[in-house]
Amino acid sequence: MRKDLGRIGEDIAERYLLNKNFVILERNFRSKRWGEIDIIARDGETIVFVEVKTRSSNRYGNPYEAVTKYKLKALRNSANYYLFTHNLKCLARIDVISINFNFGKYGINHFTNVDF
């Protein structure tokens, strides 16, 4: 169920970003050492590394609260690895998309430039 909810959240986040005129470059990019980046997109000339957090209730807090300092460090390392391996020298940022999903309805919070 968690993987399904996560995948649903990533699909919702992708549609949201496309509606905001982002260009999706990759989904579920993996670096062996630092983990996965849910969505890599372009916003104008900026590469955006997006962490998507989805929850079906607020029992354990809001989804974005699950993005810890450790997770941000791993995202930063994965983002730098992506930029290096793709020979990209451009502006970059990390965004978090937080989705509360319940009974087929959802709310989205988009936090830009969380940390880089």
Automatic annotation (TrEMBL):
<dbReference type="InterPro" id="IPR011335">
    <property type="entry name" value="Restrct_endonuc-II-like"/>
</dbReference>
<protein>
    <recommendedName>
        <fullName>UPF0102 protein A3A78_03130</fullName>
    </recommendedName>
</protein>
<comment type="similarity">
    <text>Belongs to the UPF0102 family.</text>
</comment>
<dbReference type="InterPro" id="IPR011856">
    <property type="entry name" value="tRNA_endonuc-like_dom_sf"/>
</dbReference>
<dbReference type="InterPro" id="IPR003509">
    <property type="entry name" value="UPF0102_YraN-like"/>
</dbReference>
<dbReference type="GO" id="GO:0003676">
    <property type="term" value="F:nucleic acid binding"/>
</dbReference>
<dbReference type="Pfam" id="PF02021">
    <property type="entry name" value="UPF0102"/>
</dbReference>
